[in-house]
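[agent] plan:
  1. take the single chain provided in the ticket
  2. run structure prediction with default settings
  3. attach structure tokens to the ticket
  4. add a short note for the reviewer (M.T.)
[agent] executing step 1
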Amino acid sequence: MSSTGKHPTSSVTASPGAEFRSEGQLAGVRTPVSARLLGMGFRQLVRHGLRGVWVRGELPAGSCIWAANHHSWWDGFVAAAVLGELRRPAALLMDADNLSDYRFLATLGVIPTGRPRQALQSLRSGRVLVIFPEGELRPAGPLGELAPGAQWLARRAPAALAPVAVRVAARGHQYAEALVDIAAPCAPDRLAAELSERLAGLDAAIAGADPREPLPGFTRVVSGRPSWDERIDRWARRIGRR
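[agent] step 2 finished; step 3 output follows
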């Protein structure tokens, strides 16, 4: 149901005119101040470590499961940054052994895998539950075998199950970019097929695109660090306007 990599979130992401809509924070769903502050910290980490986060697709309204591949150290932070920008109340599912190393996270909306009732309650309260069903941090490549936890939670809550393909790729700029491709909700027994197809499509889009340009259909949701040459270009334009 979540991964076992040893960092705090390892177990738990444009063309002009493209739309990326948010339903906003759900009425009645309250997020503790400490959790909001942590989310702000995660967004700052992403802004300072990546060139940005680009997203295609949209999450369904209300509670849902963000079921993503886990092929990068950044995946949990990217999910937190995107959901924070969209003002979607969220929770993260983390391997219980891993969470024991970062116990303070349990007070900030991180749920250990051994507490399915708590995960169900999170969904029933209207949150987005982030899960990496491969169960571990894997090398970038095809989707690995999925544990059944995400499907079980989707059926029991019940909640929409959204396959989310994520790639953090060094393309044509100084800093890597996070690309998040959100598929339409699927039936639980279709998760592996839908997520695998979405991930393969994202890899093909990256391979076939101009590395200096945003992927078609993706919108930047979180801004990050510009490349050295982008900063020089900005300065040159400012000087030219004087």
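[agent] step 4 note for reviewer: The chain has one domain: 33-241.
[agent] ticket updated
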